[in-house]
Structure formats: C-alpha cells, structure tokens
Specification:
Blueprint: H1 2-15, H2 17-44, E1 56-63, E2 69-70, H3 77-84, E3 89-103, E4 106-115, H4 119-123, E5 127-129, E6 140-144, H5 145-152, E7 161-166, E8 169-179, E9 192-195, H6 196-199, E10 214-219, H7 225-238, E11 248-254, E12 264-265, H8 274-305, H9 307-315, H10 320-356, H11 369-393, H12 398-403, H13 410-446, E13 456-460, H14 470-486, E14 491-497, E15 507-512, E16 519-527, H15 531-535, E17 539-542, E18 556-559, H16 560-566, E19 575-577, E20 584-591, E21 606-610, E22 618-623, H17 628-643, E23 650-652, H18 653-659, H19 662-696, H20 698-706, H21 711-745, H22 756-782, H23 786-792
Parallel strand pairs: 2-12, 4-9, 6-8, 16-21, 18-20
Antiparallel strand pairs: 1-2, 1-10, 1-11, 3-4, 3-7, 3-10, 5-8, 6-9, 7-8, 13-22, 13-23, 14-22, 15-16, 17-20, 18-21, 19-20
Helix pairs in contact: 1-2, 1-10, 2-8, 2-10, 2-19, 8-11, 8-13, 8-19, 10-11, 13-19, 13-21, 13-22, 14-17, 19-22, 20-23, 21-22
C-alpha cells in the first residue's frame, strides 16, 4: 500500500500541470453529469410519494374533431360517475387557482385547490390535525404547515378565519385541518384546499359546458381501468347537453408517467417532455464520455512517456500483474480525488442550476440510488482510464521497455486518435444543437403573430366581479375614465376581452354548419367593437362589430382557419349554429389568423362573440411608443378609484407571450451551458494531445528545421492531423445532429428550417476552437531553436 501512495505522489509530482489538467477535466465532467442526474431524478420521481400510485388514474378529455387531449373535464362529470357507478373506487375532482387571500391586514397570493372532500383519500394525504372529511363542510379549509405559518405566524391556526376573493366576491373560511407540506416534486403541490360547494355556483351539476376540472380515479383493484373507461363514456349519452353533443370521448391514463404527457393540456401543473429527459440523459453520458476520453488519453500519454521507468521496475522484479494492479489502483485513486472535487463543484452549482431549471429545493443526495450512480461513475472512469496502460504498457519485456521500442505504440496511437475524434464529434453535435435551438427560439419570438404585440398593456379586470354582473357595470366606467385622460398621454385605444394571446382561452364550443351539419370544435372569446383595432388584427372579409347595430349582439366573427375548415369561399349570407343545431347566428366578418398560444401549437378555429354575451376579464390598452411611463400611472390611478382596493394586475402582452417560450429558452441555456463544458473538455483533450505529439516529434521538428523547413511548414505538419480529425468528426456529427434536430422540430407547428449554414458554422467553430487550442503549442515547437531540439533528444 505504501508503494501505491509513493507511486501516486510521484505521479502527481512528475505530471505537474498536465496531471492537474487531467483531474480538473474529469472533475468538471463528473460535476456536470451530476447536475443532469439531479434534474432527471427530480422529474422521474414526480409524485412517487403518493401511496398506491399504480391504482390512480387521471381522466382525460379527447376532442373527437381534432384529437386534442385535456385533463380539464366537464364540471358535473365526477359526481355523475359516483352516482351512476358507485363502488368502482374513489373519484375526486379538483381545480387549481391562485387566490388573493387576506389574513388580518395582510394579503397573500395562495395556490389553492378547490376539491371534493375525499381528495385526501385518493392522494393518500394524512391530516396532522383535523378530520379527513373536513372539506364536506362549506366554509372549511385545510392548509399546509407552511401556509398556516404564512397566514398566522406562530399562532395555532385551528379555528382561525381568513378571506378568499374570487368571481363570486369575498368568502370567509375557517381552518379546520392541517397537512404536511407537499413534496417539492409533485403536481399536487397546493398550499390550501377549499371545499367544492363553497366555490361553485349552486346549479353546477347542470353546467356540462363548464370545463377545466381535474378528475382522479383510484381503483379498488388494478385491471379495472378499461371497464371504468367504457362506463365513463356512456355517461354523456344519459346526460346530453347541446354544448358537448358529439364532442368528447374520455380516457383513463395512469398517474404514473402523466407528468411527462406534454400532449395533454394540463390546467393544474406544467408537464415536462420526456424527450427533454432523454436528451439531457444523453448529454450527461456524452460529457462523462468526453471527460473519460481526456483522462484515458492523458493517462496513456504519461504512461508511454515513462516506459523506461516501467522497464526499471520490471528489472527490479516487478511482475506484470503487480504493475497492472498498481496502475489500476493509482488511476482509481485519481478518479476518487476527481469525484471529491466534482461533489464540491456540484454543491456550489446546484442553487443557480435549480433556478435555471425551475426546480424547487430538491436534495440530490437524499436518494440512496445516487450513491450507487457515483460508485458506477468512479468504476467506469477508473477502468476506462487504467485498463489500457495496465494491460499494454506493463506487458512487454524489460529490454524492450528500456530500449524504447515500446515507447511508441502505433495501435495505441490509433486508439487515442479514435478517442479524440469521438469527443470532437460529440462536441460538434452539441454545438449544432445549441445553434438550432437558439435559431428556433429567435424564429418564434420574431414570427408574424397576425397582430402587433408591441405597445399592448393589459389589466386583469376579473376582480371587479364582486357581485353578479357587476363587472359589466364597472368595466365601461373604467374604460371611459381612462379614455378621458389617456388620449393626451399616449393611450391610442382601449378594448375589453375575455382573453388575450398569452393567457388561457377558457371557452370553447362545438359549432355546426347548417348546410351539412358537420361539427367543428372552436375556441370562443368575447370581445368588444374596439378589440380588432386595438390589437391591430385586420378584418380580412366582411366587417367588424359595431355598437351602432343592435343586431350585432347576435352575430359572430370567425378566423381564417375556421373559414378554411368550413370550405367557404365567402361569408356572404352565411350562418353557423352554436350551442345547439337550432341556434343559428350570422357570420358578419372574418378576422386574420393570430397565434394565441405558443408556436408549438397550430392556430385553432375561433369564433368571436360580441361583448353583450361575454364577461370581460381583461382590458387592453394600445400605447404609443415611449409613452408607457405616462400611461401606466393613469391606468393605475383610475383602477384604484373604481376597484375599491382590489389588487392591480398589469402586464405587457409582449412579455406574456414571450413567457410561453420559457421552456425552450431554459432548454437553450441548459444545452448551451453543457455544450460549453463539452467544448472546454475537448480543448483539454486536444491540448494534452498536441503537447504529447510535440514532445514525441521534437527530434523530427529539429531535423526538418535544420534542413530548411519554414515555421509555416512546421505548423502545418503539427496541425494537419487535428484538421483531419475535426473534418472526420464533422462528417460523423452532421447526420446524427440533423436527425435529432429534425425530430425535435416536429414538436412545433411553426418552425425554422434546418439551414445548411448552421451545420457549416458549427463545423467552422469546431475547427477554429481546435486550431486555437493546439496552435500555441505548435507555434512554440515551430519557433524553437533546432539546436535546442536536437540537444533535447
């Protein structure tokens, strides 16, 4: 053992800076891989804390017309399942909102679930204080420990009261139960639970058109899901409603894995693409492979450089087995040192990485499996790095080693070159991926959306609905008061609408073409006569709504997509049936298609209803460039006058819309960061390889210079191999990257092209980085006095 420590000390001392570079490269590669493992573990373990998770299913609503899926289901469906099919298991419905909550004199925004009383039975949540049937009582509530502390400090929260604001006005609730804080990686991370009956209309069992409610079904036994799904789909036949006639089917999908269902609209949480999980897993593998390749190459280089030392050991009686064992153990010690440094780096990088990846405080090392992963990384890295020198360098006879005949192994050189090409290929693929992700994000942010998002400011006015229809009375007053003061302060126009691009469009109807009674699923939004002008959304056919025409209250506008689906050449004398096949309304105009969601989604068919039949949730202001500072105080001042102290929620439409690409931007930053690490590690490898190459060819360079070789010729001699390797790596990386990027772009309805110049730019970047890395060492060798080079030999 003492010999091994002496060998380890001697190895670090002799390798000097190259040894430190070797350890640093492996440490960085390990640290980056651990960060990705943290991200994968965080998402792959979502909701694993829920007991009997394998028995829980989510009800999914499938649109028969366009095949779209949503976890949002009709409001009365959960109760209908319980009434029609008792005994199949526990059925619980919930919806999620961020409510303004007042406790004492302080207001908070609380993420709450409005849920059935049996929600805790389904999710397996144990109450620390209170009865599990507490939500069956109107006005009751259950808080997490953290929420109770937020609202009431260190006081006992049981029996305390607080106020919640919603569309029905202010409601008072009493704390009747406390639960443990939810897991940080859970789709059901609510701070507060409120009873169903307290937050919904009295006639909610009749509102089959009112969607957005999440249903969980916990089976009594596994294997019941197919029978249960068939039964759910017969319910609509007995509860027919004209709003949903022939519109939906229902499916059951397991709770396990549903966190990755990005194809399903999710009203309570944000899913994560499993493709992203797979891609990051591959990147983690790439980075650790690049780090190991560097470690292997440097280890081989240093070992081959010290073959005479190995020969002396063999002359003194060291056996092949003892030398091989010593090589492996020393390499494993170096790997353990690198892992220790990597763990320190990981601890330092976890906070900024979690912020970038939108991960809550998750402890990487809380899962015992992580320690097995760390052990696996050490074993794989150690074996990859130590096996070659252990098995090859220590095998020849002492006379061969001392004579230097085994100092340069051609087959080993080919092996090292192959490793360098492999890491250059990986780095080139990551460069291409980073460039294309950036190009797609730039495309989405600069794409023509069909309206002008710049200069639009929106205020959420839904809080004005303190009592029935009150919003219809107060919204016009607010609009008039702002209009009086706004013209001279840069406010060009004001409009009221139920939804605006970048927000949730809650309403949808099936419409019928009276000519053939074909049905079409549409997004429906209520607007006023100013909406199209303020949004700068052109009317491409017909006309806009007019407040001068009372008949417009019964008319609708449609978008270009719906017109195409209907197969109409003109809207002249055209009608559509909405709500039911017998309720026909005239189509008075066609608005230009606009993107209301991320460009990952196609533009949906839309109908626009006049404001008389709508409850506006937003007031939108078109502000002249440079007048924002004047316009905002006016809007805020008038809001304070009319709202009675309600919270002021203002945002720009451009920011709201751009926020929809947060996932893609985070992906871009993550890939770019790891791409930078991969390139840095590749540079480590190239630097060590050129240093070894220059050292091995010192005599050759000296002889060539004595015979008249110029500096440029020597540079070409030393660098040409690296140019060849980059070209080979580019040829390998390009088709793989093309396939991967093409598959990724399939997730977007609107996407950039796979431009040839991106691949060319990536190749030039790879070549430039490689030449910059090796040129310093090459220049030193090329400008060195040949006499010194020959004396060295």
């Amino acid at each position: 053992m003492m010999n091994i420590f002496k060998h380890l000390k001697h190895s670090f001392k002799k390798e000097g800076g190259y040894g430190l570079l070797n350890i640093a490269g492996l440490s960085i590669g390990m640290a980056m891989s651990l960060l990705i493992i943290l991200y994968l573990q965080y998402h792959l373990s979502f909701d694993n804390h829920i007991p009997e998770k394998e028995k829980i299913y989510r009800v999914v609503e499938k649109d028969r017309n366009n095949g779209s899926l949503s976890f949002g289901t009709p409001l009365p469906l959960a109760q209908a399942i319980r009434d029609d099919y008792p005994g199949v298991g526990e059925i619980a419905a919930l919806s999620s909102y961020s409510y303004p909550v007042t406790s004492g004199e302080t207001k908070f925004s609380i993420r709450a679930a409005v849920a059935d009383a049996n929600i805790f039975d389904v999710l397996g949540t144990k109450l620390l204080v209170g009865s599990e049937t507490v939500l069956s009582e109107p006005g009751s509530s259950v808080l997490t420990r953290a929420c109770a502390q937020k609202l009431f400090g260190q006081e006992n929260p049981m029996g305390k009261m607080f106020t919640v604001e919603n569309y029905g006005g202010e409601k008072i609730f009493t704390v009747e139960g406390i639960i443990q804080n939810p897991a940080v990686n859970s789709d059901f991370d609510f701070e507060m639970y409120l009873p169903w009956e307290s937050m919904n209309q009295a006639n909610w069992q009749e509102l089959w058109w009112w969607g957005g409610y999440h249903i969980l079904a916990k089976m009594k036994n596994t294997g019941q899901e197919e029978d249960m799904e068939q039964k759910i789909n017969t319910i609509l036949e007995r509860h027919k409603a004209p709003y949903i006639d022939g519109r939906y089917d229902f499916q059951l999908i397991p709770l396990k894995g549903s966190h990755f269902r990005t194809d399903i609209e999710n009203p309570i949480s944000t899913p994560v693409s499993f493709v992203l999980i797979w891609v990051l897993g591959v990147i983690a593998g790439f980075i650790i492979v690049i780090a190991c390749i560097n470690f292997v190459n440097l280890s081989i280089s240093q070992t081959e450089k010290n073959v005479k030392e190995t020969g002396i050991y063999k002359v003194l009686g060291a056996s092949h087995r003892s030398l091989a064992t010593e090589f492996l153990i020393v390499t494993f010690f170096k790997t353990v040192v690198a892992m220790g440094i990597a763990l320190l780096l990981t601890r330092l990088l976890i906070p900024p990485f979690q912020k970038l990846a939108l991960m809550k405080g998750y402890d990487l090392f809380s899962n015992p499996s992580v320690w097995f992963i760390l052990l696996g990384i050490i074993l794989i890295s150690g074996l990859l790095s130590g096996l070659y020198p252990a098995m090859v360098i220590s095998r020849p006879r002492p006379v061969e080693l001392l004579s230097g005949k085994k100092g340069y192994n051609p087959s080993g050189n080919v092996f090292r070159k192959s490793l360098v090409v492999a890491q250059l290929s990986i780095a080139t693929m990551l460069i291409i991926a980073s460039l294309f992700v950036f190009k797609q994000i730039s495309f989405m942010k600069n794409h023509d959306l069909g309206f002008n998002k710049n200069g639009l400011i929106a205020v959420n006015i839904s809080q004005l609905n303190g009592e029935t229809n009150n919003i219809k009375e107060k919204a016009p007053i607010l609009e008039q008061e702002i209009q009086k003061r706004g013209i001279q302060n840069g406010i060009k126009g004001i409009a009221a609408t139920e939804a605006i691009p970048g927000t949730v469009y809650k309403n949808g109807f099936t419409v019928f073409n009276p000519e053939n009674f074909n049905s079409y699923t549409t997004i429906s939004v209520g607007i006023d006569e100013n909406y199209a002008g303020v949004m700068e959304q052109p009317v491409v056919e017909g006309r806009n709504f007019s407040k001068e025409l009372a008949s417009d209250a019964e008319g609708i506008l449609i978008n270009e997509t719906l017109k195409k689906k209907l197969g109409w050449k003109s809207i002249e004398n055209k009608q559509l049936a909405i709500f039911s096949k017998d309720y026909k309304v005239p189509v008075i105009g066609v608005l230009k298609d606009i993107n209301i969601n991320s460009l990952a989604q196609a533009i949906p068919p839309m109908i626009y209803r006049y404001k008389k039949n709508a409850y506006p949730e937003y007031m939108v202001f078109r502000v002249k460039p440079g007048y924002e500072a004047k316009a905002l105080p006016i809007i805020k001042s008038e809001w304070g006058e009319i709202s009675g102290g309600k919270p002021f929620e203002l945002f720009t439409v451009a920011d709201k819309f751009d926020a929809m690409y947060g996932g893609e931007e985070r992906l871009s930053k993550i890939i770019a960061a790891f791409c930078l690490v991969a390139v840095l590690l590749s540079c480590f490898g190239l630097f060590s390889h050129i240093a070894f190459s220059v050292q091995r060819r010192t005599k050759e360079v000296g002889i060539r210079k004595v015979n008249g070789a110029s500096i440029s010729e020597v540079l070409a001699l030393l660098n040409i191999d690296f140019v060849k390797w980059v070209i080979i790596a580019f040829i390998i990386a390009t088709p793989i990257a093309y396939y991967a990027m093409n598959k990724w772009l399939e997730n977007f309805a609107f996407k950039t092209s796979l431009s040839w110049w991106i691949f060319a730019l990536a190749g030039l970047l790879a070549l430039g980085i490689a030449l910059l890395t090796v040129s310093w060492q090459s220049w030193r060798a090329a400008t060195r006095n040949p006499v010194e080079a020959l004396r060295y030999e």
